[in-house]
Write a structure and sequence with these properties.
- The chain has one domain.
- About 80% of the residues lie in helices and about 0% in strands.
- It contains 6 helices and no strands.
- α1 (about 5-20) runs antiparallel to α2 (about 25-35) and α2 (about 25-35) crosses α3 (about 40-50).
């Protein structure tokens, strides 16, 4: 796998994370599946592995300096993410690739419709 493609995927996800607070599921996973030709479960696991490090630290610091970060809310969300990622990983690994792809597509479409109309 070409490391430059992986760095570009990371840069794109990082920029979108800084702009909109998204990156892993919406950018990294589809990019790994369609550009890097990685299996879906591998892409999900790789995305989570990349997010283990404090990848949002500089972006969070920038938002903090601008007065736009609520630490208490961030810590509670992080606690939920900690256990939620474990539960989700266990569920995803019990699903077929086709089922997981369809569920992911429904989630993205639902978010898109809600954002467009809401």
């Amino acid at each position: 796998m070409d490391w430059t493609l992986l760095v570009v995927i990371g840069l794109a996800a990082g920029m979108l994370a800084g702009l909109f607070g998204l990156g892993g599921g919406v950018v990294i996973v589809p990019a790994l599946v369609y550009l890097a030709r990685m299996p879906l479960l591998g892409a999900i696991g790789t995305s989570l592995g990349a997010l283990l490090l404090p990848v949002g630290a500089l972006g969070a610091w920038s938002y903090y300096r601008g007065g736009h970060l609520q630490w208490r809310a961030s810590l509670w969300i992080a606690l939920g993410l900690f256990f939620g990622a474990w539960i989700g990983a266990r569920i995803a690994q019990s699903m077929t690739d086709a089922s997981l792809r369809r569920l992911f597509a429904v989630l993205l479409a639902g978010v898109a419709v809600k954002m467009w109309l809401g």
